[in-house]
Amino acid sequence: HFFNKSSLKLKGKTVLITAGPTREKIDPVRFITNHSTGKMGYALAEAAKKAGAKVILVSGPVQLSPPPGVDIVKIESADEMYHAVMNNFVGADIIIKTAAVADYTPKVSYEHKMKKQPGDKVIELERTKDILSELGTKKRNKILIGFAAETENVEEYAVKKLKAKNADMIVANNVKAEGAGFGRDTNIVTLFKRDGTKIELPLMSKLEVAHKIIEEIIVLPKDLES
Ligand code: CTP
Ligand code: CA
């Protein structure tokens, strides 16, 4: 029944989706990452494809196969994701940033495996570029959807991100909640839209959540550009 409402409503549209974690290399054998498995982003790619869109999926390293008919761009680091997104941004009508992008990356990525030394070791980090924020400054009439994975103050942080990143909608979840979060097949999310609307969804499969997000994107007012 999820297919009916959105069936082919995205025909002729290009949807750019990012999914999964990023990997920030410390040296050839070590990296910094997070618990993202890509399930929510891959479900969104499937739902957008079912709705008739051309789908470009920019994916970090995950254990999933891309849904049939979806164009996959594989990346590892936040910087590679940034460039893959920017390369595909112009032709996209809708951008959904599901990916759990690393906020920090090692200042230096060593060519050879680091060796133990006496005493403590500090790895210096620097901030990565905020891809969603940058898209927010360039969006024009494109639809921009962000995610917010939180462990506390979900609504406050989600609404802050919605405004700070100039998104049309933020999909927020409490990754500590039972039935939600990393690696699961289910999720409990709340959608926060630019017009102040808040839609609290019950526990659903990630694919059902994805179809619901696509339905809500389809009915977003298009004249809210800024
Ligand atoms: N995001 C991004 N580029 C980054 C960091 C985050 O595009 N370098 C995007 C994510 O893909 C997500 C949204 O911004 O759609 C929110 O990510 P999140 O990590 O929840 O928020 P941050 O702004 O990074 O803030 P913090 O981690 O401090 O809560
Ligand atoms: Ca972050």
The ordered string of helix (H) and strand (E) elements is: HEEEHEEHEEEHEHEEEEEH
Low-confidence stretches: none
Q: What percent of residues adopt helix (DSSP H or I)?
A: 25-40%
The chain-level mean pLDDT equals 94
- Sheet with most strands: 8 strands, mixed
Q: Tell me the total number of β-strands.
A: 14
Ligand types: cytidine-5'-triphosphate, calcium ion
Main sheet strand line-up: 5-4-1-6-9-10-12-13
Which structural class matches the secondary elements?
alpha/beta
Fraction of residues in β-strands: 25-35%
Distance between the termini: 34 Å
Briefly note the CATH topology name: Rossmann fold
State the name of the first-level CATH class. Alpha Beta
CATH architecture: 3-Layer(aba) Sandwich
Individual helix count: 6
In total, the number of domains comes to 1
Structural shape? globular
The CATH superfamily is CoaB-like
Q: Report Rg.
A: 18 Å
Your description of this structure?
A hairpin with a 4-residue loop joins strand 12 (189-193) and strand 13 (198-200). This protein is globular. The protein has helices at 2-6, 39-50, 78-89, 131-138, 154-164, 206-218; strands spanning 14-19, 24-27, 30-32, 54-59, 71-74, 94-97, 104-106, 125-127, 143-150, 169-174, 186-187, 189-193, 198-200, 204-205. The protein is 27% helix and 26% strand. It is α/β, with parallel strands linked by helices. It has one domain (2-102, 126-218): CoaB-like (Rossmann fold), CATH 3.40.50. Cytidine-5'-triphosphate (CTP) is lined by residues 78, 97, 99, 101, 103, 128-132, 146-149, 161.
